[in-house]
Amino acid sequence: RQHMAGLDAWTRGLLVDAARIYESILAQHPRDLLALKLANFFHFYCGNSRELRDGVARVLPHWQRQDPGYGYVLSLYAFGLEENAEYVQAERSGRAAIEINPADAWGVHAVAHVCEMQDRHREGIDWLAQLEPHWNDLNNFRYHLWWHRALQHLNADEHEAVLAMYDEHLWDAKSDDYLDLTNDISMLQRLEFAGVEVGARWQAIADKVLPLSAARYFAFVDAHYVLALAAAGRDDQADALLSAIRAAAAATPAQTISAVTAAVNGALCEGLLSFRRGHYARATEAIGPVREQIHLLGGSHAQRDLFDEILVECALRAGQHGLARQLLDDRRATRPGNRWNTDRLSRLAATY
Question: If we measure between CA atoms, which residue out of 102, 78, 100 comes closest to residue 91?
């Protein structure tokens, strides 16, 4: 009955309530792996990084290594630790999960995130490559692991390799899964920031996004879909999608995604449209005030970093050098060796 209540809250768009219900199940049944995974899923898409970690930490004392599923609990914990910048413990937990089961994609994923956030790109590539035989025959989540590998190569300035990975391993003409599409959209934008010509790939994504855009999955997905339509030059469709997103939020104010749209995502999407149309000052005016709340869209630090990069680029292109410097200083405080930051700081220094 409690699981049914959680499902009911989910289908009514009450994601925070759903997370609370699944946590109440875990309070009584800390070894209910389905409840744990679903609670973790909702914490993720509600931007609640603390509960992403602590929700797993609370049940860990009730598990032992010999229990079926224990490795999956460790991998969930590893990702929660990573999203709270506890990288040493996160990597330890993720590697322990892989020792139990090398095909645990979430464990592979957690350690890949650690390598990304610490700019250990060659180690990240090696980690993913050595475990590829185990995860590349899994479900659609394998595309996200390829996204992580491509991102590591991109940060190493291996642009041709990234484009080849996109065509061979990320893009799936038959898939309409929202995570697959957000992988694709994010990677194409990052490639363009690196100066790579992506050709007609935006049009192929826009063709997929358009019939799917009426569904309100998560605010995180909506923002990517708006970006894709704008990047493909489909201005009318992008404007119509943003209008539909706002109308849905107004019509269902109690839903989690509606509250996030009203507070954050409407402004972010406006900024994304302005960015793709070359109105960089307008984009900074839209995105800047909501920057600290973008985590409410859900997604990981690595995924949401795209929006931070867009804001930096807009500030640079708008000639707002003071803002650009502040944003880049914020970023290098946590990622001092990040190549993307270094490149933008060099561009900024050249303007003085």
Answer: 78
- Measured in degrees and rounded to the nearest 5, phi and psi for residue 46 equal -105, 5
In eight-state DSSP terms, residue 103 is: T
**pLDDT above 70 (res 205):** yes
pLDDT digits (tens, 9 = 90+) for 45-61: 999 999 999 999 999 99
Q: Mean pLDDT in the chain? A: 96
Question: Cα–Cα distance between 122 and 155 in angstroms, integer?
Answer: 10
pLDDT of 311: 98
**Spatial distance between the Cα atoms of 241 and 221, rounded to a whole number of angstroms:** 12
pLDDT higher than 90, residue 337: no
For residue 215, the 8-state DSSP code is: S
Q: Which two tokens stand for residue 194?
A: 């690196």
Provide the pLDDT for residue 214.
87
Q: Which two tokens stand for residue 116?
A: 């990304």
Lookup result for tokens 């800047």: 288
Q: At what angle do helices 2-11 and 15-28 cross, to 10 degrees?
A: 170
Instruction: Please check whether residue 224 is in contact with residue 185, taking contact to mean a CB–CB distance below 8 angstroms.
Output: yes
Q: Are 334 and 152 contacting, i.e. CB atoms less than 8 angstroms apart?
A: no
> What confidence tens digit (pLDDT) does each residue in 169-202 have?
999 999 999 999 999 999 999 999 999 999 999 9
**Helix, coil or strand: residue 248:** helix
337 vs 49, 207, 343, 352, CA distance in Å? 24, 38, 11, 23
CA distances from 256 to 12, 95, 325 (A): 9, 34, 34
How many Cα atoms occupy the beta-carbon half-sphere of 198 within 13 Å?
A: 26
Per residue, the 3-state secondary structure of 298-346, as one string, reads CCCHHHHHHHHHHHHHHHHHCCCHHHHHHHHHHHHHHCCCCHHHHHHHH
